[in-house]
Design brief:
Helices cover 44% and strands 13% of the residues. It is built from 8 helices and 8 strands; from the N terminus they run E-E-H-E-E-H-H-E-H-E-H-H-E-E-H-H. Helix 1 packs antiparallel against helix 4. The structure holds iron/sulfur cluster (SF4).
């Protein structure tokens, strides 16, 4: 329900598409404001910037990584360091411009020394990620590496077994992929079956499904509105 300013409330399903869009935008801005001011875990003490996320919220494709690194902490933008540059190349290899998708992380502040986020930090930050997913309503989510895969799919299986497979999560098609920083450690390895080759196969599958879902969204079956 939304307060209508006259002391009563308006059911959200009674709102016009424009009003729904305004309500969605207001919730998004409030979520971002709370994240920027957040001090709910210890990472607030060492961060330079909160890295909320960036990209096109209407495209239906969302990528979720682990946490900001040094460059991301400095700039306040996700995936802008070496791993981010590789991610941009991976997306471009199948014709996806990174500005056309939404990119976020499980935790919004950099863990010192780029360590893996602690479970309590992931739990504290979860409300921001869940709100982002709720408001973006993606058709597809790509989970980059083990941290978002474990957090979203609640699995203990390794990324090597999970990558390249589609999972249904709350009606959203979800695919785990290797994290680009893992691929950087295998810089020279492009042989068939190697991590880079597998990631190239995975992103092609993502592109195929994204093309299909975009047709549906453009054909009036949008789940955004
Ligand atoms: S990591 Fe998330 S929960 Fe922790 S301070 Fe940053 S925004 Fe808040």
């Amino acid at each position: 329900m939304i307060h209508n300013g006259t002391g009563g409330t308006t059911e959200i399903f009674c709102l016009s598409p424009d009003e729904r869009e305004q309500a969605r935008e207001a919730l998004w801005n409030e979520c971002k404001k709370q994240a920027v001011e957040c001090g709910m875990c210890a990472l607030a003490e060492t961060r330079t910037n909160v890295v909320f996320g960036e990209g096109d919220r209407r495209s239906g494709l969302m990528l979720i990584g682990e946490a900001p690194g040094e460059m991301e902490d400095t700039t306040g933008r996700p995936f802008v360091g070496k791993a981010g540059q590789l991610l941009t190349q991976i997306l471009a290899s199948v014709g996806i411009d990174r500005g056309d998708v939404y990119i976020a992380n499980v935790v919004k502040c950099r863990p010192p020394g780029n360590r893996t986020p602690l479970p309590e930090e992931e739990a504290a930050c979860d409300k921001f990620l869940q709100t982002q997913i709720l408001l973006i309503k993606p058709s597809i989510i790509v989970l980059l590496g083990m941290t978002p895969t474990k957090w979203i799919l609640k699995t203990t299986e390794g990324i090597t077994k999970l990558r390249g497979r589609w999972f249904d999560w709350r009606g959203i098609s979800v695919m785990p992929m290797f994290h680009p920083s893992y691929l950087l450690r295998y810089a020279g390895d492009k042989k068939p079956g190697g991590p880079k080759h597998l990631s190239w196969l995975d992103i092609q599958e993502v592109k195929k499904k994204w093309d299909l879902t975009r047709e549906q969204r453009l054909g009036g079956e949008s789940d955004y509105d």
